[in-house]
Amino acid sequence: MKHVQALALLAALSTSAAIAEEQSGDMSEGMGLIERGAMMFFRGLADEIEPDMDKMMEELEPALRGLADNIEPAFRELADMVGEMNMYHPPERMPNGDIILRRKTPLPSDPSGDIEL
Question: What is the pLDDT, as a whole number, of residue 67?
Answer without folding.
Answer: 85
